[in-house]
Amino acid sequence: MTDDKMLARIAALLRQAEGTDNSHEADAFMAAAQRLATATSIDLAVARSHSAKREAAQAPTQRTVTIGEPGTKGLRTYVQLFAVIAAANDVRCDVASNSALVYAYGFTEDIDTTHALYASLVVQMVRASDAYIASGAHRPTPTITARLNFQLAFGARVGQRLAEARDEAQREVANDSQRAAGTAVALRDKEIELQDHYRTASQARGTWRATRASAGYSSAARRAGDRAGRRARLGNSPELPGARRPLDR
């Protein structure tokens, strides 16, 4: 399956998620979208491993993704959301010191999938945190502290759900005796190729952290963010139903 066909099928799943009021159905559609992305990524890795002539488009690449304007409060929570989605889709990330930019390293289909999922989920995260703050349930915790904790917990829960869907898709392939051996070799080669590319291309210094000691902690906001992350649906992204907007470079 080509990258465009994969994203078109994912878009259909996202529209189904948006069309149901049943949280269990929405979760099933989200998991299906991630499993589809994982299965397609595996198939493309196997195809590359059997290709006698590799093309430049089949090699790992690096893209720069704009997260927000420098100085905007809460950018670290947006970066964390992008990073957990990336981790579920074989994409490595470096982060600018001001958290305004993410440098994504991976294969084209994996970066595109990460961007598509992020475009949907970041809108949901902001809306959910706005609703939580507007409810007043965070008081007496300062608004910025509550918002940051809510969004960090939201991202962590979404990352866990996507990782579980990815692992399920990988287990399905591993249990298929006709595909398992060749797939294992292809995925190992893919991982090595990505590691080599990252070591060569990355200029990162130090370790990026989503939280700072001075940011404050709110257990209530974390619990609320976790609940919202459990309910999060994929969809409502203007980029997916029709033509895709190019990623920031």
General description of the model:
The chain is mainly alpha-helical and 249 residues long. It has helices at 3-18, 23-49, 75-87, 108-135, 143-174, 177-201, 219-231; strands at 61-66, 92-95, 101-106. A three-stranded antiparallel beta sheet has the order 1-3-2, with helices on both faces. Helix 2 packs across helix 5 (143-174). Mean pLDDT is 83; it is low at 235-249.
Question: What number is the mean pLDDT?
Answer: 83
Overall shape: globular
Strand runs, count: 3
Q: Main sheet: which strands, in order across?
A: 1-3-2
Order of helices and strands: HHEHEEHHHH
Content-based structural category: mainly alpha
Q: What's the number of helices?
A: 7
Q: What fraction of residues sit in β-strands? A: 5-15%
Measured on Cα atoms, how large is the radius of gyration? 18 Å
Question: In this structure, how is the largest beta sheet organized?
Answer: 3 strands, antiparallel
- Contiguous low-pLDDT stretches (5 residues minimum) are 235-249
| Beginning-to-end CA distance, first to last residue | 25 Å
Number of domains: 1
Q: Which range best describes the helical content: under 10%, 10-25%, 25-40%, 40-55%, 55-70% or over 70%?
A: 55-70%
